[in-house]
Specification:
The chain is an alpha+beta fold. 32% of the residues lie in helices and 28% in strands. The protein has a single domain, classed as Yope Regulator, Chain: A, CATH 3.30.1460.10. β5 and β6 form a beta hairpin.
Amino acid sequence: MRALSWLLSGLLLSSPVWAGDAPPIQLPPSAPSTDVADTVPAILGEAGVGYEVDDDGDYRIVYGWEREGRSQLVYVSGHTEEIAGRRVREVFSPAARLDEGIEASVLRDLLRDSRSRKLGAWEIAGEMLFYVIKLPEPVDATLLLAALTAAAEIADEREQAFTGDLDAL
């Protein structure tokens, strides 16, 4: 298992490869708010991270690992949400389609895994399992890029656990 500490240090030492297209997925719903200056495009642009804006206004990024020959979708919410007067933005990455449901033992494993994480947790939206990291807004470049890396790595590991070598998300 790839360690989060390795991810954060690796983020500073190497540049990820951003891969091409992947199939569309159903994203978690959000209550958009637009009264905060959106710094995400500038942060992604300065870091050389390619992205597309989807129909919901979310930033769609394909994170790739050349050595493993894998890629992973990661999204940055194009909108913020408010809680107690503070703005929060989500970084989320799909890990599995749950069209056939999910066993209770797998749900327990996901809850245990969420408990062990210092940044983010597992969420189910519709028929999709996502790894979601909620960040305070305005978000700085270091934290956003670390969250992108963490979400991509963690979701890809879980995707491999669910599907083996299949790289669909």
